[in-house]
Amino acid sequence: MELLLQAFSWLLTPESWTQQGGALQRLFEHLGVTIGVVALSAGIALPLGVMIGHTRRWTTAVALLAGAARAIPTLGLLTLLGLALGIGLGAPVLALLVLAAPPLLAGAYAGVQAVDPEAVDGARSVGMSEAEIIRSVELPLALPVIVGGIRSATLQVVATATLAAYTSDTGLGRYIFSGLKSRDYPELIAGSLLVIALALLLDGSFALLMKSRSRAPRSDRQTTTIPLERNPS
Amino acid sequence: MKWLNQNVGSLLELTVAHLALAVPAILLSLVIAVPIGWTAQRLRWARDPALALVGVLYAIPSLPLFVLVPVVLGIGIRSSANAIIVLTVYATAIMVRSAADAFSSVPLEARMSATAIGYSTWHRFWSVDLPLAIPVMLAGLRVVVVSTVSLVTVGSVIGIPSLGTLFTDGFQRGIVAEVAAGLIVTVLIALVLDGICILAGRALTPWARAAEAR
């Protein structure tokens, strides 16, 4: 408990935040890597997932892939890529891209696939092209599930980005690894608290976003369609 | 291969250490989550807050939790207890949701029939609710097994021995084969434990196969 108080006093010291390589800089690094990786991964995985959901091909393969990805230990992937690509931002970013893809893919294809076929057939019968069907029927109806996938991917990446400091000195994870090495426990604990706060803040933002966007009446079933697609890492 | 030949002993040792952390956490999460899931299903007002709470727990990144749990509980950061507690938190977070869904999936008729012929709540839990909840609960347990086995490796960066030690050691010494061996064996353990879950599920729900055969 003594250590917790010291960690809080570290957090309340302005210099901890503003100095070169301070908490503010690392917080922005962490957030920047997270947003960048999720955006990049979404740019590839979402269109692919929507196409798979629309054509209903390869759905079993994608479901298997998403399941298998859960079994791969993130630290193993990170260190293997670290050895292959060397110290630097390349290896963790590549590992994070790979980890973000399965929940994004799963959210996109499951969301589109769950759209009522009658709505799609109706759109087709009034003469909409396939592209129009995707854009103005399937995407709007699938949006909540797609956003759910983005939420899972973001949580996965923000958590794993902490671990990424093991192979490259980026983000808030640096406090944890340098604190462990130098036995600077207040800094170690303060860094841990910051990562937790950032993750909960991001998750809470998604929860608010999804709540404000869903005008349809809440149902208990809806909340369980994407059951926890990420590794807790 | 050369690395493997020289290190079979330590690979086995770390595999045992890995299992000694993962298996207790998985079993503990079952013991904790089943009563919570059952209660959440009976008290409708408790369901949403309970699920929201486990959702928040699940959102916490694991590495910081590996650091904070020992500080708050006053146990050693490199102790097995620390790893088992952290792993149990995540496993329980998945399992509570799954158990709540599982108990909701039990047909109302089955429960009401049991009550009608005079089963006590306790008796009904063991002979109606729990057995009929197994199929849905098993799906959750399989997710727990696979993700727990993978999560154990994170503890190695703070010095808790497991197959993850092969990642940290291999990375520091630049031995690709060591990291690769750790990856492969971790995935293999997850697959084997997953298989055991499937077999146990079959043994515990003989009626499911009888229905299939018909």
TrEMBL record, chain A:
Keywords: Membrane, Transmembrane, Transmembrane helix, Transport. It is a multi-pass membrane protein. It is found in: Cell membrane; Membrane. One of its GO terms (biological process) is transmembrane transport. The keyword Isomerase does not apply. Its main location: membrane. SUPFAM superfamilies: MetI-like. The chain crosses the membrane at residues 34-54, 75-101, 188-209. One of its GO terms (cellular component) is plasma membrane. Residues 31-206 form the ABC transmembrane type-1 domain. Belongs to the binding-protein-dependent transport system permease family. This is ABC transporter permease subunit. It comes from Labedella populi.
UniProtKB/TrEMBL annotation, chain B:
PROSITE patterns: ABC_TM1. SUPFAM superfamilies: MetI-like. It is a multi-pass membrane protein. Coiled coil: none annotated. Its main location: membrane. Gene3D superfamilies: MetI-like. The chain crosses the membrane at residues 16-38, 50-77, 83-103, 132-160, 180-204. The keyword Electron transport does not apply. It is found in: Cell membrane; Membrane. InterPro entries: ABC_transp_perm/SBD (IPR051204), MetI-like (IPR000515), MetI-like_sf (IPR035906). One of its GO terms (biological process) is transmembrane transport. Belongs to the binding-protein-dependent transport system permease family. This is ABC transporter permease subunit. It comes from Labedella populi.
